[in-house]
Amino acid sequence: MRFSGYAAVFDRVDRGGDVVRRGAFSKALGKPVPLLWQHAPDRVIGRIEHLAEDAHGLRVTGRISAATQAGREAGALLREGALDGLSFGYRVRGQKRLATARELTALELVEISLVTFPMQPLARVHGLVVCGE
Question: Which residues are 7's β-sheet partners?
């Protein structure tokens, strides 16, 4: 199963008080990024096939593997519409303090996860393609 969506949305304050700016992921583009289940490093469920920044945020295309129980579970929940959250793990490389938020200007992207409750409520899966698994 393949999916596409936004793992980050630019210029919107998240539940943790952070706002990601366009260009924050520029050094991560073109590098391999694992796809995890609920940020658990021992639950790899596939791979990110494509990353790109656009005016809206960090657009991703991923492929979920049916080779693991966690991958099968994630795929089933996506197909059923029970889950559609995306999130990312990162290390801060550049930031600024604003009056109401922390502005993230440079990030080292560690992983992308399918999650139940994304920190950024607008970070969601927007499309699915179910193919031979």
Answer: none
Pairing of strands 57-64, 125-129: unpaired
The helix/strand/coil state of 31 is coil
Biggest CA pair distance of the chain: 50
pLDDT digits (tens, 9 = 90+) for 61-83: 999 999 999 999 999 999 999 99
In the block, tokens 């999650």 appear at 115
Two tokens, residue 119: 């920190």
Which CATH number covers residue 45?
3.20.16.10
The string of pLDDT tens digits covering residues 92-122 is 999 999 888 999 999 999 999 999 999 999 9
CA 102 to mean position of chain CA atoms: 19
Structural domains of the chain, count = 1
